[in-house]
Amino acid sequence: MLNNIMPMLQQLSRVQNPMGMMMQMFGGTPQFQQIMHIVQGKSPQELEEYVRNICKSQNIDVDNLIKMVKPF
Fold this sequence. Notes:
By secondary structure, this protein is mostly helical. It has helices at residues 2-14, 18-26, 30-39, 44-57, 62-69.
């Protein structure tokens, strides 16, 4: 699963406006619209908790994921 998403996450970590890029790529999809609705108004701490819970449910080590996409 991570093999498919890693190139996209690495690309997003290198652009100046990742949200703008994501809107261009996925803005018209129902899944993206649902995610935007979920994250709207959330604090950074709430978003981190949300992502950690999703990763945990998918058996993904979020700390390793962060290390892989962090800009050098």
